[in-house]
Automatic annotation (TrEMBL):
InterPro entries xrefs: AAA+_ATPase, ABC_transporter-like_ATP-bd, ABC_transporter-like_CS, ABC_transpr_LolD-like, MacB-like_ATP-bd, P-loop_NTPase
Annotated ABC transporter domain residues: 6-245
Protein name: ABC transport system ATP-binding protein
Naturally occurring in which organism (per UniProt): Meridianimaribacter flavus
Gene Ontology MF, one: ATP binding
Assigned keywords, A-Z: ATP-binding, Nucleotide-binding, Transport
């Protein structure tokens, strides 16, 4: 049996606002196996951000269980949660979240600074490797303002990979990008997934789901659908089909 990277059981999250209780997640259960590429989809207010915050160990559920890579997250202290985040999860955000005026290579090295076991030479080597993996081997010393949006997102993807996380957690990662660049980034995600990297992509865009092997649809804090996609689209093929006038870069 494949290894379970994520295991969630009857997860609930509620928020108290004055006398009112908002049930953002109402008892969610699913597992994500190592090597899966899963889209978590839902319209505004369905509970995606709440789910993402819990998956990313940024928030704790009100009740239920959450395990990542066999570690039970419940009852961990803030420091322990920070360690889990740093060691096990590679985050990718819509707005890249790179440090301005800091080179690509230094941005990618950042997650390794907290790891005292990694020497500065090793850090540099791993950052170069990660940047080469995302096709930016020739942009190591560029700062974010010297890079296009797609390239900045590639730096963020390299940063997410440098710690060898058990899962990449993407939050609307193509939300700021034009169609062509989105397909380029989805092509990269598909390549990384082929190499065995587990990806969870949280989005409100149904298009994204066509590129992943499985879709979980949330509605009003519940799972409405959880299905395997038997006809995964190739983002590279979609890219090739785009008319040339869309070529901006
Ligand atoms: N901190 C909070 N306090 C109170 N209610 C909250 C809080 N966070 C989320 N909620 C409520 O929980 C529900 C789910 O919100 P959530 O942000 O997870 O949805 P979403 O699917 O991410 O929406 P969007 O796509 O608009 O970001 C909403 O009704 C929201 O108002």
């Amino acid at each position: 049996m494949a290894k379970e990277t994520i295991k969630i059981e009857n997860l609930k999250r509620q928020f108290t606002m004055g006398s009112e209780t908002v049930h953002a997640l109402k008892g969610i259960s699913f597992t994500i196996e190592e090597g899966e590429f899963v889209t978590i989809m839902g319209s505004s207010g369905s509970g995606k951000s709440t789910m993402l915050n819990i998956l990313g160990c940024l928030d704790q559920p009100t009740s239920g269980n959450y395990e990542i890579d066999g570690v039970k997250v419940k009852n961990l202290s803030k420091n322990e949660l920070a360690t889990i985040r740093n060691e096990k999860i590679g985050f990718i955000f819509q707005s890249y979240n790179l440090l301005a005026r800091t080179s690509a290579i230094e941005n990618v090295e950042l997650p390794l600074l907290y790891n005292s076991k990694v020497t500065s030479e090793e850090r540099r080597k791993r950052a170069i490797n990660a940047l080469e993996m995302v096709g930016l081997g020739d942009r190591l010393f560029h700062t974010p303002s010297q890079l296009s949006g797609g390239q900045q997102q590639r730096v963020a993807i390299a940063r997410s990979l440098v710690n060898n996380p058990v899962m990449i957690l993407a939050d609307e990662a193509t939300g700021n990008l034009d169609t062509r660049t989105s397909y380029e980034i989805m092509t990269l995600f598909q390549e990384l997934n082929k190499k065995g990297i587990t990806i969870t992509f949280v989005t409100h865009e149904p298009d994204i789901a066509t590129f992943s092997g499985r879709t979980i649809v949330l509605k009003d804090g519940e799972i409405m659908q959880d299905y395997k996609n038997h006809k995964v689209q190739s983002a590279a093929d979609q890219l090739a089909k785009l008319p040339l006038e869309n070529h901006l870069s």
